[in-house]
Structures are given as C-alpha cells and as structure tokens.
Amino acid sequence: MALWGGRFSTATDSELTAFSESVSFDKRLYKFDILGSKAHSAMLAAAGIIPFETAEKIDMELSEIEKRIDSGDFKFTSELEDIHMHIENALIEKLGNEGARVHTARSRNDQVALDIRLYLREEITQISAMIKDMQRALTGQADANDKVIMPGFTHLQHAQPVLFAHHMLAYVEMLQRDIERLGDCRKRINVMPLGSGALAGTTLPINREFVREKLGFDAITANSMDAVADRDFAIELLSALSIFAMHISRLSEDIILWCSQEYNFIELADAFCTGSSLMPQKKNPDIAELSRGKTARVYGSLMALLTLCKGLPLTYNRDLQEDKEQIFDAIDTVKKILRVYPPMIATLSLKAENMLKAASDPALMATDLAERLVELGVPFRNAHHRVGAFVKWCRDNNQALNKVSLAEMRISIPEATPDFLELFSPESSVAKREVPGGTGFKTVRASIDLWIKRLD
Ligand code: ARG
Fold it and tell me: Annotated catalytic, 155?
C-alpha cells in the first residue's frame, strides 16, 4: 500500500505505477532530500511538535539510509513513486511510529521544491568553477600566443587584422557574463520553500527561519502558493545554461572552421579528435561538433520547461514532475561539454604563419588608409569613398593595393602622402589599435595579465 493509500480501496493499476513513477530519475536528489528532512525534523523538535529523542533517531536513521543509497544497498521500486516516499518509507520501516512523524507539517510539494533548490545551488557552484577552467584554457592560449595576428571576420569575410589572443579573450569575456548570470540566478534559487505545505502552509507552529538558517538559505519564500507552484528559478537557470551553450557553440564553429583545409589556422591534438571509418586521412573536430550539437539539447530543455509551466493553474500540478529530467539533462550536458572542452583548447596548436598570411592581404588595411585621411582632415565619409574608389581602381587594373605607385594611388586619393604606401603591414595596423578594448599589442597584453590575475 502506498503511503497515501488511506482513502483508496483497490490497488493502483500497474501501468499507472510505471507511468507515474519518478524515482528512476529523481533518486539523484537523495542527499538533498535527506539534508532537508534532517533540518525539518530538528525544527519540529525545537518547536515542540515532535519529541527530541524522535528527531535524534530520525537523524541517525537518515544517515544510515544515506549510506545504504551511497553503497547501492537500497531497493528502489516504482510502487513508492519518488525519492521522497522511498526515504520516508525506509524511515518508517526502521523506526515505526517515530519515523511516521517526519512528514509532519510538510508536503512532497514543498519538499520537492526544497530538494531542487538545494540541488541547483550545488550544481551552480560546480558549473561556475568548470566555466572558470574553460576561461583559464582560453587565457592560456592567449598568453602563449600574444603576438599572433590573424584576420578578424565580419560576414565570414576577411575584415581587419586582429590578435588571435584578442579573439580568445572575447570568449573569456562572454564566459564571465555566463558565470555572473549563474550567480545572479543563484540569488533567486537560494530561497527556502519548506513550510509551504501542499499549498496553504500549516496549522502547526513551525519555525521556518530555523530551517532556513540550518540549510544556509538567504531568505524564506514569502507566499506558500508561489513556493510550490513556480519553477521560474529553474527556467532562469536553463536559460543561463542555454546562453552559455550558445557561446560554446559559436566557439565550436570557429574551431571547426579554423581546422578546415580552407582556413588551416590551427591543429587540434590527436587525443581530442577522431578519425573516419572509411577515409583514412580524416581527423575530425568532434568535440566542437558535438558541443555545437548538444547545444540543441539544452535549448530543448529550456523550451520544454517553459512549455510545461505555461498552462498550469496555481498551485502544484503533477505536470511539474516532468521538470526534473529536463533540468538534469541540461546540467549533465553542460558538464559533459565542460569536461572535454578546456583540455581540447589547452592542447590546440596554432599555424601562426597561415594566420598571418591570411591577415596580410593589403585590402584588410583599407580602413587604416581611410583613418589616415581623417588625420589629414578629410571627413570620414569622403575618406571612405576615396579608399573605396582606390580598391576598385586596383581591382579594375589587376593591381595589389600595396604594389601601386603614389601617383596611381593619387588618382583615387588625391591627398595621399608617401607614408600611405607603408600602411599595408598587418603588424603596424594592429600596433596602432591601442584604444581601450582594442586589439593593440599592449592593450591585449594588459587584458591577458588582468585575466591571469583574476582567474588565479
Ligand atoms: N514526485 C513529485 C514531483 O516531482 C513530488 C510531488 C508529488 N506531489 C503529489 N501531490 N503527488 O513533483
């Protein structure tokens, strides 16, 4: 008979049992469930609702149950539905009536809300640390290759020369915001829902502050109906994880392109690539491709959770049990990515000469010419137009931009001075970009040093 079986006269249909169970996936919450039950029963005793000796026995037995689950010596069965009932049932099996006191002034509705919050709080700490490792790997590459020049792209077309380190640090910045988003989300997760009961609180004189303090929450939830009904905190976390995955997916796209024969900018270490079962020459960037692919799963989980909640009347509905697999899958997926990605980044090697060669096309310095004209007093729009005409003249006359004579340049750019012919080196183009946030050698070196310090 189920723990809720009092008002039922026949047994549950076996298909329903299989359909409604969640223990096959929510058992991973057991440590948090036990932690919550310990705090709850200590509070019940402190508030004079159950005897102290009972709370002590419950505490000890919960530790035993935890050890049994840790060691795999605990039987899970669909009949007991979820992890909450498994643990309560095991307690009652050992302690009889004393165990039957643990669920006083509590519902699985506020219990599960508590468990998820405790679980997510811990995951946020772990994932943030893992993202930091990823930032370290990217910063390490920037540090080791701080003078390497590559073409920067817009519209996937060569645009202007940039430092490879600048490109790496762009992702370090994005990941920093991802960490900040997780921290921000944690503030709203770290609020204690227990004491909300099924939806309406309880008639018993509980002390919610006691439980809050014991479990290290910042505050208690202010409305019992809100506390059992909403999963916005999980939706927020999944959206932060989706944004993180989007960043990784973009980095993956860069990596995949850079490895291709067309770019040939980098080489990944053998240990982080796989081959083809048919084509003997292949070496594929699977980690980047799979991470790009797994981003779809994380987005899917976010969409599932949003859709799950959109039509639910207040308060708790059993639909909410479907939240867990989405939450778990998104977290597992992100952690899987974060286990393989940093070492792949740390071990990739650059083909710096190919990068520089691609950045040495004089057309990439066309903007530098226009800006030099601005220095000579020409309004930028006119300068842009003249340099554009110059590029066109070179094309029409089948000439490289850096091979023309001053007289030829002056056909389109009458103000050109001899130094204009020297503006076509990617090194000096980069060196002149020492604006804050720019790709100048000194500016980027200072950012690398700052990040090394921050990530220490
Ligand atoms: N397994 C349920 C869930 O994950 C716990 C709450 C069940 N409450 C209920 N009244 N059936 O949401």
Answer: yes
Distance 13 CA to ligand 1 centre (A): 18
Whole-prediction pTM value?
0.95
User: pLDDT tens digits, residue range 308-355?
Assistant: 999 999 999 999 999 999 999 999 999 999 999 999 999 999 999 999
Instruction: For residue 146, give the 3-state DSSP assignment.
Output: coil
Same domain, 383 and 410: yes
Compute the C-alpha angle 337/127/163, nearest 5°.
65
Which one of 276, 384, 412, 447 is the catalytic residue? 276
Cα 334 to averaged position of ligand 1 atoms, centre (Å): 26
Cβ partners under 8 Å of residue 228, min gap 6: 107, 109, 110, 113, 193, 196, 197, 198, 199, 315, 316
pLDDT digits (tens, 9 = 90+) for 211-224: 999 999 999 999 99
When divided into structural domains, the chain yields a total of 3
Check whether residue 45 and residue 73 sit in a common domain.
yes
Domain residues for the domain of 249 are 109-194+223-357
> Is 166 among the catalytic positions?
no
